[in-house]
Amino acid sequence: MWSRIDASNNGRNITMDEEITQWLEKHIIQYKLYKHPAVFTVAEAQIHCSHIPGLACKNLFVKDSKTGKYYLITTPSKKKFRLNTVRKIIGAKKLHFASPDQLMDKLGLIPGAVSPLGLLNNSQKDVTFIIDQEIWNNTELTSFHPNINDESLTLTLENFHRFVEAVENTYQVIDILESDIN
Description:
The chain has helices at about 20-25, 40-50, 85-90, 100-105, 135, 155-165, and strands spanning about 1-5, 30-35, 55-65, 70-75, 95, 125-130, 140-145, 150-155, 170-175. By secondary structure, it is of the alpha/beta class.
């Protein structure tokens, strides 16, 4: 079932990028789409997206400055961790946030709209998708932006796994331990 819900506009139609919609339907990935005010941070999402069910995701686009490899890291939005922790687990040399130009070049996205669906724009398949095992094993719904930060979509576990396999980027499921970050 594909459905679009606009809680802020009494059921008015929502427009998610038509190419994404077609891709999801082609790969039989069922979702629900929600409209909300644009959010740029996890704190803003906690205010404006509290009506959206499921485990909300935080998505970080990073680069290994030593090897030139790119990674999209997806974790629960409330999880606090250090990039150095992820670096060690995946065997990267030195991780840092990729620039807005690199984000646009590799995923076709702007800061604030980073999403696993950006992997659809990665035609070279040279971005590795790093998924926190808490998301990979989540039996509830998982939610993230559909490449625009004033909408969120939810996927069941089965549909999230189907997405990861269908997008065809290399992926790695890891246990990202929460850190005490002050």
